Amino acid sequence: LQPAVPTDLKPEQNQQVLSHLKNPSFVRTVRTEEVRSDDLSRLRPGMWLNDAIINTYGALLLDRAEVPGAPRSIHFFNSFFYQKLSEQGYDKGMLKRWTKRSKVDIFEKDVVLFPINLGNAHWTAAAINMKEKRIEYYDSMGDRGGARKAIFRNVREYLQKEHQDKKGSAFNLSGWEDVFNPVNNGSDCGVFSCQTLEAIARGRDLVNDGFDFGAKHMSMMRKLMVFEIAQGKLEKRW
């Protein structure tokens, strides 16, 4: 049996979290992302997470994936990726530059992860699982706004155009499936999305094995994210 996910941090970690949240000059840079005190305060209970928090957490996922022995090779697209894809499309949104500039071949990765901001009101998460041939979509409030059909369609179009641009050939989507995984997790949608992407990045198969966390863990996970962002490194999971 796997150990249960804790519902709180250790006392000394909680003290550090409080100290970071009270520090008006807090700043942490991870790769090209930066979190300042105003951003960090978004991790206080009940607050809406902003792009700085979400994208810095993604940078931490990338850092962990580069450590020798990492369970999965991943790529993380920041929160502006899907916004451009959905609003402008692959060509107008210049999305081919995103992987050209960073010299990333997404088709060689196990999984490609990205957060989705729905109408500046709700965070969800998506994964392109290259190994399992799945486009996975996770929403903590069911299918808010009926978004999933458009998301699956847009991601499939992205895969086809990216493959044509980088490989010069059509991408074979036969055998690929769209998987929607709704979870009733209340209002902590940003935390839920980050922790969903974290779980996938460390190798958990959420489609077949489900989540190892739930609504009761959200308070702890907010503090955990403060702790991890402050130290610039993800903690070892349970």
UniProtKB/TrEMBL annotation:
Residue ranges of domain Ubiquitin-like protease family profile in the record: 33-200
Keywords: Hydrolase, Protease, Thiol protease
GO cellular component term, pick one: nucleus
Annotated GO MF terms: deSUMOylase activity
GO biological process: protein desumoylation; proteolysis
Keyword NADP assigned: no
Pfam families: Peptidase_C48 (PF02902)
Keyword Protease included in the entry's annotation: yes
SUPFAM superfamilies: Cysteine proteinases
Coiled-coil zones: none
Family: Belongs to the peptidase C48 family.
PANTHER family (alphabetical): GH15225P-RELATED (PTHR12606:SF141), SENTRIN/SUMO-SPECIFIC PROTEASE (PTHR12606)
Protein name: Ubiquitin-like protease family profile domain-containing protein
Source organism per UniProt: Naematelia encephala
